[in-house]
Amino acid sequence: MAPLLFWTPLLVVIVSALTGMVIFIAGEHHALLRIILNLVAAVLKLLLVAMIGILVLNGYTPEFRVSLVPGLDLVLRADALSMLFASLSAVLWLVTTVYAIAYLERSPNRARFFGFFSLCVAATMGISMAGNLLTFFIFYELLTLTTWPLVVHNGTATAIRSGAAYLRYTLSGGALFLVGLAWLYGISGPQAFVPGGSLAEHAVDARLSLQIIFVLLTVGMGVKAALFPLHGWLPQAMVAPAPVSALLHAVAVVKAGAFGLIRLVEDVYGAALVAELRLDLPLLIVAAFTILYGSVQALRQTDLKKRLAFSTVSQVSYIILGIAIGGPVATVGGLVHLVHQGLMKIILFFCAGIFANLLGVKRIDQLDGIGRRMPWTSACFTVGALGMIGLPPVAGFVSKWYLGAGAVAADRAWVVAVLVTSTVLNASYFLPVLKRIWLHPPPQHWPREVHVSRLETGSLVGSAIVAAMLSIAVGLLAGHPLSPLNWVDAIVAGYFP
Amino acid sequence: MDSSTLYVLAAAVLFGVGVYGLIVSAHLMRKLFAVNIMGSAIFLLLVATAGPVAGHPDPVPQALVLTGIVIAVSATAFGLALMVRLGQETGRATLGIQDEPENDD
Amino acid sequence: MTTEALALIVFLPLLAAAGAVVLPKAWLALMIRIGLLPLPVLLLIPTLEVAHNGAYRVALAGHDSPLGIAWQLDPLSLLMLWLNVGMTLLVSLHAGFSFRPGSDRAQRFWPLWLLLFAGMNALVLSADLFNIYVTLELVTLTAIGLIAVEGKPAALRAAMRYLLLALMASLLYLLGVGLIYGETGVLDLYMMTDRLEPGWLAITAMALMIVGLLIKAAIFPLHAWLPAAHGNAPGPVSAILSAMVVKVSIYLIWRLWFWSASEWNLDTAAQLMGVLGGLAIIYGSLAALVQPRLKMIIAYSTVAQLGYLLLLFPLASALAFQAASYHLISHGMAKAAMFLAAANILKSVGTDRLSRLAGIDQRLPLDVFALALGGVSIMGLPPSGGFLAKWLFLEAAWQAKAWGWLILVVLGGLLAAAYLFRVLAVICLHPRRHGGQASVRRAPNLASVAALLLALGAIVAGFTSAPILDLVEAGLPPGLQP
């Protein structure tokens, strides 16, 4: 049992990393090998994550540890929160891989794309399994490195500009993160993630330092989580191919930032210490403002992917809102939204990608009547959009409900007003899109219609349908013992004993 | 003025001449000479300041200077060879301003 | 046993160099093997010696200081020896390909190469200021010869400029040595500590030696010779110059500062050195950002990265010493990898102008990969040796409450990212200009493998630091022991 517990967390990371390496070495021309490798690796990873999940359920804590510098350990450990993010990423990666294989069927540089795609997921797995802040940082920076080639994949001037913006934001954020990390390390030594945090003893003598460090680390992670005003790179990164957008928004990058903030607040500082240092209200205000700002910006966009991007800016802040409110109920709402937002946003990006790839439809006013041309895709899009608005029974409703209830329970009733406003805004930027899709008459010609094989269409639309079904399922089956909601309940019970 | 002060002053003047020559001359031969003059200044200074030990001259500074001269001579020879080669390649024995004309554009 | 091994470590390459000059062409390959391959095995003997007894002293020909010449092997010089042997062997793998024995070019290149190798080994072993002067000259002159070995005008000019400055630097150093001798009557690095009173003459002498060494180490603002020299030299030469040759000058300053003058109070001077380092980091990075040629970018990056080694002076702690030593090692490997990869690119494309390099990742995937991996370490992104070095610097700065240096280290990393991503963006992404040709892959050869091995070394250094850091800790200077 011991070697199993030691090696499995590393294995999850290695699987994807090795896949990436082999894809690079195999090169451009071995398309079939690449497809098989991608799928096998994705399934294998899902099985591994499931296996670790079972171990964790049975009370084990798989942990891999290696020393970098004396006193500085690289730790990969699977706890309940790791499993929440890891299983989300593993499931969505499988779906995204199928989608990406079909989406990039005819484009050049696929070896490079899928190589970095796999490395990117390896980094995400490392982030989810990170057992201390240093390990988290290492994989967090690796994620930056491995997503950059994906963002600039098209190689156009716009793509390179967006890539530069992405690097400017993330590397500067990473630098502040590093400063905060070194500072924190100097105060308290290595930062293992412990539910409830481990810094309380330093709160008296290093109060100001802890506050500054919190700000530094929050900025470092807030860049990826696209907190206002650090969100600038996200809408620009929309030039990347649709599977990358899905990856950025739902599986990896933005989620890594949000996940890091959860770790920071709950497992490094602890919610009680954050409140005691008076850091919860500023974080709450930033999150609330980002929610409203993202929604308003989304409303102003005419480009479908841009609108979705600003919607992400807004939606991810729900997660941060949840942990900033504090208290068990809101925390459950925030954590569970990590999963729910991922599922719903990936549908929307899959569908936007299908519209753009097969019909050349990129702007919202081009969507007229597309529901008749592509009923399945449009249906999936509708599920995602309604979920984002928070309509039951799609997953989004559950998280909003918990957030609202949690805000009331924590005596922050004004947050409910933010939630309501945001819901109204969500509705007003998604419903007109749905109206165009279903009720407007279709045009004579689509902007750039492409005829492709049934297999390709099937894989593209199939991925979207699977994601849509998953997001309805987690909403409907929220009471099931293995649902994300119950899983999160168990995690949060550890924070608020 | 005693003799050692005279030597130190002479060394300083020589060194100044060397630095001036190194900066002002364009031709590489002159630059190499200038460096050699600077070298002579330093050797002079070393020999002049090496006091006698127990009535005998201290051999170590003499050895230092001797080795220094040998190295300076060989480095100068090497520099002259480089200069000749540069002259063959470019037709000029100066470092010139128009330095980096990489002819690949 | 150890004495003989150390002697062989210096004299085997020296003899091989002589053999390569004197013997007929056909013997060159054998001479190269004799001069290089036994060294790692030989080095095991002194390594065991240091592991058991710490330092080890050799009086050459039985005459110890002050009259004789002494070598001293301590953990730090052992580390430098290993670094030099390892790097030279790996880079020789590349040189064996680009200067294949049998050609006239090889006949000119290899004797100098072996001589440089011998000189470096002797230099890091030497405990005698004057012996150091001689070996330093040997290293400098062979390095200049190597820069000019292909006879290209740009390289000849760079070599000439380097020669003039290096000669001046040597004279300053020699003057310092002479004055030190006049003051103390000894030339031994480690024996003069007690006799060295900080009078104006001793301070002048020390300052002269350090300025001379700073010129040779190309520390801003005395860096002017380096970019042209490293940017125009043949690939393996640029690699070893940036990775080792400039570093030994800084190693010597460390020796003078922390060993010979360990009794002095050097706080103000240390701050000054730190400021020089900081300026080097900022200036070198900004200059790298605007260079049009790949090798010049890498060369200016060296100017910047050398600045970190000077941060040791103001931080002056055991942790900072570990940081600087680790930076020296990981930068050495990463920079050598980048120069070798750039040389392969230059050879294959015919130019290293960035504007012509679009899309070469298709043609030279291994080289571009090595370039990128080396870049990761230079930027100090995890996981890499560069990251660990940066981390140790940050910790050292934190412990010293030196916020300025802390910010500088972080800023330096960001600037490095700026100039290196500029390179990667152009290489990998610009719309293809080579059309169909771009997909033709060149078969990977030993030259690319050498670059890749070095780059992987820089990354692996991010995981296996313990043996190296233990060695550094065992060799801490007297003033920095915790």
SSE layout and pairing:
The complex is a heterotrimer of chains A (497), B (105) and C (482).
Chain A: H1 2-26, H2 31-57, E1 63-69, E2 72-77, H3 80-103, H4 110-129, H5 133-151, H6 157-188, H7 207-225, H8 233-236, H9 242-251, H10 253-269, H11 271-276, H12 280-300, H13 304-325, H14 328-359, H15 370-373, H16 375-389, H17 395-409, H18 414-439, H19 454-476, H20 484-495
Antiparallel strand pairs in A: 1-2
Helix pairs in contact in A: 1-2, 1-4, 2-3, 3-4, 3-9, 3-14, 3-19, 4-5, 5-6, 5-10, 6-7, 7-10, 9-10, 9-14, 10-13, 12-13, 12-18, 13-14, 13-17, 14-16, 14-17, 14-19, 14-20, 16-18, 16-19, 17-18, 17-19
Chain B: H1 3-24, H2 28-49, E1 52-53, E2 56-57, H3 59-90
Helix pairs in contact in B: 1-2, 2-3
Chain C: H1 2-22, H2 28-36, H3 38-53, E1 56-59, E2 70-73, H4 75-98, H5 104-125, H6 129-147, H7 153-184, H8 200-216, H9 225-232, H10 235-260, H11 267-290, H12 294-310, H13 312-315, H14 318-349, H15 360-363, H16 365-379, H17 385-399, H18 403-429, H19 446-460, H20 466-474
Antiparallel strand pairs in C: 1-2
Structural account:
The complex is a heterotrimer of chains A (497), B (105) and C (482). Chain A is an all-alpha fold and 497 residues long. Chain A contains 20 helices and 2 strands. Helix content of chain A is 75%, strand content 3%. The mean pLDDT of chain A is 84. Chain B is mainly alpha-helical and 105 residues long. In chain B, helix 1 runs antiparallel to helix 2. The C terminus of chain B is likely disordered. Chain C has 482 residues and is an all-alpha fold. A two-stranded antiparallel sheet of chain C has the order 1-2. In chain C, helix 1 packs antiparallel against helix 5, helix 14 packs antiparallel against helix 16 and helix 16 packs parallel to helix 19. The two termini of chain C are 33 Å apart. Chains B and C meet through helix 2 and helix 3 of B and helix 6 and helix 7 of C.
